[in-house]
Design brief:
heterodimer, A: mainly alpha, 81% helix, rod-shaped, B: alpha/beta, Spore Coat Polysaccharide Biosynthesis Protein SpsA, Chain A, 7-stranded mixed β-sheet
Chain lengths: 122, 229
């Protein structure tokens, strides 16, 4: 029962994370949410997990839950990778604006570049 | 200039190209074109050499990649009210004579992009077999993913009208930008033509060029970009 409660708490956190990720990276949100819901179902209906595991040739239902957790972890890693790329996008726009402004200053032109969007996506 | 193009700019992205960028810029200036060199955070004197050779130099404070540098150059040229832009490699493998042919192509009514092709005439000099295999794979992928009937891909020589340049917004900072440009041309529904160009490979340019292992990185970059908004 303690393990079930702990896993439920962890998977509930993953659901919140999936909802948050859904706004920026819809595919990650959907997959992580789906995996977390499946995990919750298997935690509370372990006999179905065992049946599905046997059907898939995994062996035990608990192994299936572990595999589900591994999938969730990989999705979270992918989401972090994508967030890093979004950060790089912002750094690029910032560096570009700085470079163009400096070039204009050197040429004695008034800097008139439009403001760039640096607001991070949530 | 003749025709409707009055203010063409040549955009050169350069990273640690001090040994050759001066010659490249001099050639473009002698051909009569304004040139902006984007020094992509070089550790050598690339920017200074380009400046002395007659280019406007825009310096990235950090190294971001060729795609990012090209977009910076495009943005700068558009701010200078360029009505046509030509992208040109900094490693000396392109000929300034090709610029006129590319610009003539986009002077045709309704054409917004002219893409250099190494395979229209077969006149490309000393193209190594490994490079030919790599380009063939990239070409197959580009045709399949964009639907564009191009004969060459990842060719840095291209021209675009200002309207075409505004339709381009590169977010692939590194080598995948060449595929991204073709994707964006396809999405913009603007018309393009291909123009035969000769590429003069040297030991220097081959040393700086893409390798087969880079193809995997490009594929990952293109895939990852499709996952987020």
């Amino acid at each position: 029962m303690i393990a079930q409660l702990l896993l439920t708490a962890f998977l509930a956190l993953v659901l919140v994370y999936a909802w948050s990720a859904h706004r920026t990276v819809p595919i990650i949100g959907l997959l992580a949410g789906g995996a977390a819901l499946a995990g919750l179902y298997f935690v509370w209906v372990p006999e179905h997990a065992t049946a599905l595991a046997a059907f898939a040739g995994i062996g035990r239902g608990s192994d299936l839950i572990v595999y589900t957790w591994v999938v969730i972890s990989l999705l979270i890693m992918l989401n972090l990778h994508i967030k890093l790329r979004l950060q790089l996008d912002m750094i690029t726009r910032l560096a570009r604006a700085v470079a163009i402004d400096r070039a204009k200053d050197m040429l004695g032109q008034k800097a008139e570049a439009p403001p760039i969007e640096l607001q991070a996506k949530k | 200039m003749t025709g409707r193009i009055r203010n063409p700019w040549v955009v050169v992205a350069a990273y640690n190209e001090a040994p050759v960028v001066g010659t490249v810029v001099s050639g473009i200036r002698r051909a009569g074109y304004a040139v902006v060199v984007v020094d992509d955070g070089s550790g050598d004197r690339t920017g200074d050499v380009a400046l002395l050779a007659g280019a406007v130099v825009v310096r990235h404070p950090i190294n971001l990649g060729q795609g990012a540098a090209l977009q910076t150059g495009i943005d700068y040229a558009l701010e200078q009210r360029a009505d046509a832009l030509v992208t040109f490699d900094a490693d000396g493998q392109h000929s300034p004579a090709a610029i006129a042919a590319l610009l003539a192509a986009i002077e045709q009514p309704g054409i917004d992009f002219a893409l250099g092709s190494r395979f229209l005439t077969g006149a490309t000099a000393n193209l190594p077999v490994s490079r030919r295999i790599l380009l063939s794979a990239a070409l197959w992928f580009t045709r399949a993913s964009t639907g564009l009937p191009v004969t060459d891909t990842h060719n840095g020589l291209r021209a675009m009208t200002a309207r075409g340049a505004r339709a381009i917004s590169l977010r692939q900072n590194r080598m995948a930008h060449a595929s991204e440009i073709l994707h964006q041309i396809a999405q913009s529904r603007l018309r393009f033509v291909e123009v035969p160009v000769n590429i003069e490979y040297s030991a220097y340019s081959l040393g700086k060029g893409q390798r087969i292992t880079d193809a995997l990185t490009i594929l990952i970059d293109l895939f990852a970009r499709r996952l987020y908004r």
